[in-house]
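Fold it.
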Amino acid sequence: MLDNKELFFRSLNSQLLQKANTSKSIVETNKKYCIPEDKFNNVFSSNNPETIANLANDYIVHHYTYQAPRITMLQRYYYGDNDIHYWVNDKAANGRADNRIASGFPKFITNMRVGYRLGKPIQFKWSDNTNPDNEIIDLVKKFNNLNDEEYHEKVMGINLSITGRAYELLYTGESVQDANGDWSIPDVHLKAIDPATCFVVYDTTVESKPLFAVRYYAYEFNDKTVYYADVYTSSKLYHYKMQTANTGGKMEYLSDDDLSFNQVPIIEYYNNENRVGDWEQKIDNIDAYDLAMSEMANSQEDFANAKLMINGDMDFEKEPLTKPDGTPILDENGEPVFVPKVDTQDRYLFLKPSVIPNANNGNTVINSSAEYLTKNLNEAGWEIYIKRLVADIHKDTNTPDVSDENFGGNNSGIALAYKLFGEDQERSMQESLYTKGIMQRLRLLNSYWSSLKLCDKDIVNKFSIKYLPNVPKNDSEIVNMFNVLQQSGALSDKTLLEFVSVITGIDAEAEEERIKQQQQEEGKYGFDAALQQVDESQLEQARKQLNLDDTTRIETPSDFIRRMRSEE
């Protein structure tokens, strides 16, 4: 929505609106939309596009008036376009320095939080004790690969961190008919939606079941802006066109489509229960930091352009003062008026004491001097103030200050764990809410695939979502710990493979498949295969020649090597 000029400029005044009417604006700018289910059924069961448009338009006007400016303002801060760029003062008009320095705290905090939580790919694990259903696993893997799921999660994480909410849309592609006349099964696509252009309306029960969702967006051509709105239910998609998203805008029905998910295909994710961004509550501190840095730069620039104060007389050559036509200007005695001949490019300034005649007390002599007229800056106090602002921003957002000299790579794991303790608490809560959204995504997919008889119904509930925090790791320490755990025999091979996957980058299931394939290759081409081809009578004759009885165990070369390695 940042390409919407009207909304962009209204976002500049969002904080002023909040200060003018705090009790209302805080509620209105982050309001969760609800509607009684019976009223929803009365409107949408009629399948009347005009009736549906009237209901949807009420929500669109409210969202565009109150919520979209707040979200757009937060997006501006992430892009480095802080409100310091738009503050009004008269410094430039008075010839003073007017620097506007915007800090990068919003982007730093968001990127740190998203990188820590989603820097490593999310793992979709089979959590049930039964044998995995390979059909649904393959369908999920294909869907994730098709939609670049790993990148999609990062985009969603950025939206969550900035605005406190994120939206994703699931939709099906086109079906293609082959030469035999058979139609292909449409793929399901996944798209992150701008939070400033989307909202979901829920029922009024404690379950908050989504009833419908709206996505509206602007299209500008030849300085004329036209809005389009899509209204999604569990079974239908309605397309509308409107001239404005403000009050009084009429929605023109265009068309509608059938949906295949049996649920609203737009999913809303929460960053926290309050739906606020990771740094939204510290915008006042960020603005104060921007102002402090800008004023410090202004003071330095004003000092460089300070006024020169001169006491005494300038000892320069004199030249006559003339009129524009070159005629000399005369004093009251008819004598030419002379002024100092000053060269602004001259590096030197010659002064002499000024003598003021006084008949009664003798002459008064004013010693000559030259100095810049400046104000004294409390640099130490300024530095303390700025450091305090920085510390408060990091502390209150639970974001570690990686520039801190105590935050080094030589610290122990326990020391670093304490520094990341606050962010880990945030991560734990955010992962729980994010998992809720991913499971809703999987249920939508399951509903679509089961309707096509591709998998069983409700089988995706057997998936569990695993997160791996993206932190610096010590590979040698992990390998040593792996060896200790392996020798202890307290953990299964699969658990050990999951433990070491942070180094190899291969999950436990894939590593097990590689081990099985390697063993098959060894059996096909190695020493074991050669022994398997020996005739049983020849093997018995070899036993007698070596005086081996039936209780003697003969190891293949591969078994021997494995046993020797385990005994080391």
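The mean pLDDT is 82.
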